[in-house]
Amino acid sequence: MMITHNLGYPRIGNNREIKKAIEGYWSGKINYNQLIQTSAEIKQHLIEAMNPSAFH
């Protein structure tokens, strides 16, 4: 069995979505709940992308 480590996966999203959401929150374009929802969605997507069964 081969064990792999993923040291460089972008935690802020492939297109920096979490960073953009944080900046939107700071500027008042989105509220706190939208920030949390966006962050949770991106993190869930990243977890699904890093699922070992996704690598064939």
Number of beta strands: 0
The level of helicity is 40-55%
Largest sheet: none
pLDDT averaged residue by residue: 84
Would you list the SSEs in sequence order as H and E?
Answer: HH
- Rg, Å, rounded: 14 Å
* Shape label: elongated
Tally of individual helices: 2
What portion of residues belong to β-strands? under 5%
End-to-end separation: 14 Å
Structural class: mainly alpha
Contiguous runs where pLDDT drops below 50 for at least 5 residues = none
What attributes characterize this protein structure?
56 residues, mainly alpha, single chain, 2 helices
Commentary on this structure:
By secondary structure, this protein is an all-alpha fold. It has a domain at 17-51. It has helices at residues 17-27, 32-49. Helix 1 (17-27) runs antiparallel to helix 2 (32-49). The longest helix has 18 residues, at 32-49. The radius of gyration is 14 Å and the shape is elongated.
Task: Please summarize what this structure is.
The protein is an all-alpha fold.
Q: What's the topology here?
A:
Blueprint: H1 17-27, H2 32-49
Helix pairs in contact: 1-2
